[in-house]
Each structure stands twice: as structure tokens, then as C-alpha cells.
Amino acid sequence: MMPPVNRNTALLLDIDGTLLDMAPSPERVVVPHTLIRALERIALDLSGALAFVSGRSLASIDRLFAPFRPAAIGAHGAEIRGATGRVVRARPIPPRVRALFAQLAASTPGLLLEDKAVGLALHYRAAPQAWPMLKTAIEKNAGLFADEDIHVQFGKAVIDARPFGVDKGTAVQRLARQQPFAGRAILFGGDDTTDLDVFRVLPGLGGQGFSVGRRFPGAVHVFPSPRQVRQWLIGLAHAGRSR
Ligand SMILES: [Mg+2]
User: With contact defined as beta carbons under 8 Å apart, do 173 and 181 qualify?
Assistant: First the structure.
């Protein structure tokens, strides 16, 4: 059962696979205008206690949802923008790791490297045959990642690299201490491996989470697909308007 959203709620939302249908590449997602309007409305109703929690960079998030620019956690926690607009960034990815990812990306047509400075994402959705080679290469370089203090994580057709200790969960803990999020009942939604890091910290924050397309342990609700999440949000926006 979805908990009610009221004036004491803080809504934290993953983007790809949660709000938006997955696309062949990150830049080809479709962002319905009705979704942007609904999110703007809900953010107003929550006095700004709405934040994106994404693997995308803040720049990429802002391009998708312009002109809406709420609080946001980008690059899996390596970028945190509070409701005031102030941004805190993790240290950049070391050159040796960046070079390895660039070399892997160039090895097979269809691979796409997204360089977020504070994080790397190697997308293989358009070249699924490259997966065994990529997995082997990542495993072979475990020593390099350890030396450089970099954490590598496998998601949906994507391999992410970011500074060790940085994840969506630790970023949510930090955002939850800031106004207007502090003291509110957190409701988080996600669909992928990196969102489990948020599910891990939710109990300690007194928050709740829903998942999309698959059941996460502890999820209070499972939406079949992003479409149902969008319908829920549009409904929330309309309900808020009538209050
Ligand atoms: Mg996602």
C-alpha cells in the first residue's frame, strides 16, 4: 500500500526506469510535459521537499526537466544539490580510471561512455554482446580500482564508477538532514541496483520506499512500470491543487 503523501512528506525519486521508460540511450528518453507539470506542482505543495535521486549528472537532469530545477542527487550521490540550489560534489574520477573506461568504450561499436567528472557510466544497451568482455576487464582491474579508491557497480546495461563511499544511500542521508527535508516522512522510489543503497538507509531515516518493475526487499508498494508511477504523480498533483 502506498503511504499517503501530505505536507509532511519528502518525495525522493529516481528518474530512469522509475519516472521515465528506459530508452536505447540516456539522451533518447521521453519526458512527458504532463510529468514535469505534475512534479512542479507537487514540489510546491511540499514546500520544495521533492528531489531527484539519479545516476545522471545534475546537468543532464536539468536538461531533461527544464525549466523545473528541484533539489537533486546526481551521479549516484557524487553530486548533491539542496533545495537552496547549493551543490556539493565528490572528488573527480582519477585519470587512470577514466582512461581505462575510455579504452573499453572505444573497443566495441555501440558502447557509450557518459563522463560526469565525478562519475563514469559505460552503457552497453546498444552492444549487449560486449558484456562478457567488459565484465572480464572490470574484474581484471580490481587492483586499479582499489588503489584509486573507486567503486564499480553493475546496473541495467550500464557499468558505473564513482568514488568509494559515495552512493545514493549516503547522499540521501545527507540531503535528509537539510531543510526542507529534515523531519519529514521520506518516500523514495527506485528500480535498479543503485537504488538498493537508498533502501538500505530508509529504515534508519524512518522512511519508506516503493520499487518499479521488480520487488525490492522492504518495498511498501511495487509499480509495474514507470507509466503507473507517472499516473500516480499526476493524480497527486491534481489532488494537491484541489486542497
Ligand atoms: Mg533507475
Answer: no
The yes-or-no answer to whether 9-90+166-242 and 95-163 have a common fold is no
pLDDT confidence of residue 240: 81
Per-residue pLDDT tens digits for 86-132: 999 999 999 999 999 999 999 999 999 999 889 999 999 999 999 99
Rounded to two decimals, the pTM is 0.91
In the sheet that holds 150-155, the strands lie side by side as 112-115, 120-123, 158-163, 150-155
Distance 168 CA to ligand 1 centre (A): 11
| Domain residue ranges of the chain, discontinuous segments joined by + | 9-90+166-242, 95-163
| DSSP code for 229 | H
Distance from Cα 80 to the centre of ligand 1, integer Å: 17
- Report the separation in Å between the CA atom of 238 and the middle of ligand 1, taken as the mean of its atom positions: 25
Q: Which of 117, 111, 48, 54 is nearest to 83 (CA)?
A: 48
CATH number of 95-163: 3.30.70.1020
For domain 9-90+166-242, which CATH number applies: 3.30.70.1450, 3.10.100.10, 3.40.50.1000, 3.30.70.141? 3.40.50.1000
CB 93 within 8 A of CB 81: no
Q: Which three cell numbers stand for residue 71?
A: 533539489
Cα separations (Å) of 158 from 43, 56, 153, 218? Answer: 30, 12, 8, 25
For the question of residue 16 being annotated catalytic, the response is no
